[in-house]
Amino acid sequence: MMMNRRNFLGSLGAGGLALMLSPSETTAAEPYEGPLLVTINAIGGWDITNFCDPKGNWMNERYNTGDILTAGGIPFAPLDTNEAFFTRFHSDMLLINGIDMRTAGHAEGARHMWSGELNDNNTPSLAALFAAKHVQEADAPAPFVSYGGFSRTGDLVPLTRLGSPLTLASIGRHERERGIPTASRYVDDFVLEEVFAARAKRHEAAPADELPRLRAQRSLLYGHQLTTPLLRRYQEHLPEANHTLPVHQAQAAISLACLKAGVGASASLFVSDFDTHSNHEELHAIKLQELLEAITYTVERAAELDLLDRLTIVVSSEFSRTPEYNGNAGKDHWPCNSMIVMGPGITGNRVVGGTDDALMPKNVNLDTLALDDDGDRLYPGHVHTALREHLGLGEFGVETGFDLRMRTVPLFV
């Protein structure tokens, strides 16, 4: 049985032991340097017809069907900065349209879209499952960093919530006095070295007949003590202007700094307030602009940090919005969705799936992915099963008890 890391660390915190003294840099663990994943949540339900599944005419007040533009083989709505975005990224982008959500509830839709499971059975998000898999091979002090969105862990991995860019660094430097420019220590170096040596000696002297659970917990604690110094290094990878960045870009800057420093393997970002039940066109345009800025900044900053060859980016929302407007010039919840995936090994300039003129999902041949009236609906579970296979999580999901029980579809081959 896999150990419940999150609950164990929580029990340490309750006992006052959550922040331990750090070993010296010479004994610290190596930073994680494996594959990375960033998910970007458009919280509230985005309007795919104003973005990546364009319709026009009665469904959209701001453009008509004849105005729809195309970048490569990907059609998009001719609004705001969509053209610049799709012109720049279409060759790297797999766009999946017509995903049948089977729900229009916020909690249910978020769970279904980000875990692949509609039922409330503790299935972790894709980002959490990804982090848990890679932490088995290379421990990290903050394997899964989340600002918000659906971030359930399935009790497989600790969840690190971030706010200020100083948060992690302060933990990594907790043996120093707060707010002192010289960063003087509470105790001298020779005392810390004696503490580190005593800790290592205790760890090595564990009795041979130690209970397996106790041994596993002690080893876990010791491993996290060794990785704590990585937390202070992440500040080296923050942009100089991180304090003045818009919120949705600051999330990306801080999260990518963590990933670059080897602190963790995955991060969950978000742009909120897409739930435009009134004044839809004006309010939604602002949020879509922020989303495109967040995606663009994530790619650009990842390139600056030399992470793009390791980084997969997944963008989606919990559902879309109704084709028609309500009495408040807003749009309500609609159980159809889209997803954008970019990253290593993904063939871009492709659209899979689709919707009809009423924004209903079209059937797809699950062997060829061609639109086919005699085919099947494409559900989030199909997409996640393919994503798990692509990211090397297929067997891990089954082993941890979170098998989606969906057939594999060739989205990434």
Main sheet characteristics: 8 strands, mixed
* Binned strand content: 5-15%
Number of domains: 2
The CATH class designation of the largest domain is Alpha Beta
What ranges have pLDDT less than 50 throughout 5 or more consecutive residues? 1-28, 172-187
CATH level-3 fold name of the largest domain: Alkaline Phosphatase, subunit A
Q: What helical percentage do the residues reach?
A: 25-40%
Structural class call reads alpha/beta
Strand order in the largest sheet: 6-5-7-1-8-11-4-12
Kindly state the mean pLDDT as a whole number? 84
The number of helical elements comes to 12
Radius of gyration: 23 Å
The helix/strand order is: HEEEHEHHEEHHHHHEHEEEEEHH
Oligomer: single chain
How many beta-strand segments? 12
Distance between the termini: 33 Å
Name the CATH architecture of the largest domain. 3-Layer(aba) Sandwich
Which descriptor suits the 3D outline? Answer: globular
Blueprint of the fold:
Elements: H1 5-14, E1 36-42, E2 69-71, E3 74-76, H2 82-89, E4 94-100, H3 106-115, H4 126-135, E5 144-146, E6 159-161, H5 166-172, H6 189-204, H7 212-227, H8 230-233, H9 247-260, E7 266-271, H10 280-304, E8 311-317, E9 320-321, E10 333-334, E11 336-342, E12 350-352, H11 380-390, H12 394-399
Parallel strand pairs: 1-7, 1-8, 4-12, 5-6, 5-7
Antiparallel strand pairs: 2-3, 4-11, 8-11, 9-10
Helix pairs in contact: 9-10
